[in-house]
Each structure stands twice: as C-alpha cells, then as structure tokens.
TrEMBL record:
PROSITE patterns registered for this protein in UniProt: GNAT (PS51186)
Annotated GO MF terms: acyltransferase activity
Coiled-coil residue windows: none
InterPro entries, alphabetized: Acyl_CoA_acyltransferase, Bact_Acetyltransf, GNAT_dom
Species, as recorded: Blastococcus deserti
Keyword Phosphoprotein: no
Protein name (record): GNAT family N-acetyltransferase
Keywords: Acyltransferase, Transferase
Pfam families listed in its UniProt record: Acetyltransf_1
Domain of life: Bacteria
Length: 180
C-alpha cells in the first residue's frame, strides 16, 4: 500500500472510492465528494494544505486531507480521513493520519483539529494515539442518515505542546527526514 499526494491521474479512482463508501462515512467529508468537477479541482488546486491517497494498484483505498481554516484561524488545519471498509483494521488509517500530521507540521500549521462522531471508536483511538486530545463536545450537533441527533467531538493537536509526545510516537524522526 502506497501513500501519495493526490494528482490528476488518481481522480477517477478517487471518485470510485467515494462512490463505494457507505453513506454514513461520507458524513466525515464535508465537500461534494461525488461531484467529478469538485474532485478534479482538488488535484490541480494551489491552495495550502494537502490531500493524499493510499493506492493499491489502480485502486484508491484511503484518503486524507488537511484543510487550513480561513482568516484568523489559518494556522489551524482540519483533518479529514477515510479508509475503504475492506481495507480497515490493518494500519492504513494510522499511516494516512501520520502522513497528514507530518506534512501539516512541515507546512507550518501549529494546530490540527479533527471532528469525530462520538461513537467512532476507531477514529478516537487512532487520533488519541497520535497526540490529539478532546477539545470540545458539541451535543446533538449532527443528524445521521436516519435523522437521529448525534454528538460531535472536536479533537485537537497543538503541535508545540505535544512535540514531546510526537517524539514518543516516532513522528519527530519523520519530520527530520522530511526537512533533510
Ligand atoms: C477511522 C478510520 C479511518 C480508521 O481506519 P483503519 O485503517 O481501520 O485504522 P487502523 O487500522 O490504522 O487502526 C488504527 C487504530 O484504530 C483502532 N481501531 C481500528 N479498528 C477498530 C475497530 N473496529 N474498533 C475499535 N477500534 C479500532 C485501533 O486502536 C487501531 O490501532 P491498533 O491497530 O494499534 O489496534 C476508518 O474506520 C474510517 O474510515 N472510518 C470512517 C470515517 C471516519 O471515522 N473518519 C475519522 C474522522 S475524519
């Protein structure tokens, strides 16, 4: 499994990946991911932040993005991560999240946030292990596909504060390798 920056050659495979996701998972990606024009525009965008895909041959099996927030929060990046159901549980989510963290820190972002529906145990475990901590609980903040209200958690990673923590998970080494 290889992780690479999203380029135009992967757009069709990425569209297929999104089209095959269960509807509930699309909640985590706020953009219009089933619209070909939107996805193609990502591959050519020059906006800050980044998008990466995991590929297995011609297939896209995972997607992660870091989107800087606008205006006075442009030092903050929002992470969006999703792995194909058939590829879950083998470390790909963790690999993609680490890649996003390394690239975001390298790009100078000093805080990262991720929004997680309260029941998403796997996402919570994954981001907590990477040094994210709970920063807000927004009660009844989203409606799921059946119209039920669900809580949303905002986890945050303050880069400077958690630098020591990053050391323990080996990410500082990766950053050093990137800088070199
Ligand atoms: C969250 C998600 C990206 C995890 O992807 P993944 O490839 O399965 O993750 P990994 O295999 O790297 O697992 C990472 C950790 O999650 C936890 N985990 C994985 N599957 C789990 C499960 N079914 N139940 C509970 N915890 C689980 C484990 O702690 C695991 O660490 P370990 O391998 O050391 O035990 C994936 O479930 C997904 O796409 N979910 C829908 C979208 C979403 O929730 N996105 C997050 C918010 S943006």
């Amino acid at each position: 499994m290889q992780v690479e920056p999203l380029g135009p050659e992967r757009c069709d495979a990425l569209l297929t990946f999104f089209a095959e996701l269960p509807e509930g998972d699309l909640t985590f990606i706020k953009e219009e991911v089933t619209d070909p024009e939107t996805v193609r525009s990502w591959a050519t965008a020059t906006t800050p932040g980044g998008r990466w895909v995991a590929v297995d041959g011609e297939r896209v099996t995972g997607y992660v993005a870091v989107r800087p927030l606008p205006g006075w929060s442009d030092h903050v990046g929002e992470v969006r991560l999703v792995v194909a159901p058939s590829a879950r549980g083998s470390g790909l989510g963790r690999q993609l999240a680490r890649r996003a963290l390394v690239e975001a820190v390298g790009a100078g972002l000093s805080k990262l946030v991720v929004e997680i529906v309260a029941e998403q145990g796997a996402a919570l475990a994954l981001f907590t292990d990477l040094g994210f901590t709970g920063e807000a609980l927004l009660r009844d903040h989203i409606r799921d596909r059946s119209g039920e209200l669900r809580d949303l958690m905002v986890l945050a990673h303050h880069v400077s504060e958690t630098w020591a923590g990053m050391d323990t998970v080996g990410i500082a080494d990766e950053l050093g390798a990137c800088a070199g």
